[in-house]
Specification:
Two copies of one chain form a homodimer. By secondary structure, the first copy, chain A, is α+β, with helices and mostly antiparallel strands. The first copy, chain A, has five helices and six strands. In chain A, strands 2-1-6-5-4-3 form a six-stranded mixed β-sheet. In chain A, strand 1 and strand 2 form a beta hairpin. Chain A is globular and about 40 Å long. Chain A starts with a helix and ends with a helix. In chain A, about 30% of the residues are buried.
């Protein structure tokens, strides 16, 4: 039984090759905060789903603007566990906003060309998510 | 390239056999709201991480009480996408609390015996999470 578990633990999910390349490019962009490269990784009609709003956001420019803004507020952003399935990945992360510690997940779906078609973010705890959202709205309003 | 993608899409992650059996039992318990069976699926020192609090909860009795309470408030709970990796699974869901629609994920980790050791829930949007948490606290206080 022990041997079976060890072997099973070695198995890893591998979404299609274009998705594998896409998630690697996403992680590079986040590590380098290379937002100039992000549009090339996004499908034209990409959908972004924020942890604060039920309504989704659409389009490359909107998603790039939101991520630039939010990554300018979050500190010590670090990816933790990694899950995958179908054409997508779930990347767990930890971060800070001021004194508040947060954990979250990015749920990222890719098309057959390795472009991101859907990007959903969920974070906990909820009160810190609202703090982050209000700071983002303040900075957005300030241009 | 199309053939490669089709084959790659067929690959699925398979955490160890005990974890596979454990997640199937979890999904049965949720489908049947069979909370009496939940303690047998939990490790003694199981950790529950809620979408509303940064502090974790510990122990079987606490987790069972919280889930009984929360599943008594959520309506139309439905699992959506499914991801896996290592010894765990991410199960995306949709639900309603009153008029508020929510999406969330259960991130479930299993030990080598197929018992749940860590259960983290994240949900969006954040304001609806706070509505759910305050309703849960009200019912908890009311016994």
């Amino acid at each position: 039984m022990k041997d079976i578990d060890i072997m099973a633990d070695r198995k890893t999910d591998q979404p299609h090759e274009a998705a594998q390349a896409g998630i690697a490019e996403w992680q590079r962009i986040v590590a380098e905060l290379d937002w100039e490269s992000l549009p090339d990784l996004l499908a034209e009609k990409v959908t972004y789903r924020s942890p604060a709003d039920i309504e989704a956001y659409h389009g490359k420019d909107t998603m790039v603007a939101i991520l630039r803004l939010v990554f300018g507020i979050m500190e010590d952003f670090t990816y933790l566990r990694h899950f995958s399935g179908g054409n997508g990945y779930v990347l767990e992360f930890s971060t800070h906003v001021g004194d508040a510690r947060l954990f979250g997940v990015d749920i990222v779906e890719f098309d057959q060309n390795g472009k991101i078609t859907d990007f959903m973010v969920m974070m906990r705890p909820a009160d810190a998510v609202l703090t982050l959202a209000s700071e983002a709205a303040k900075r957005m309003a300030a241009g």
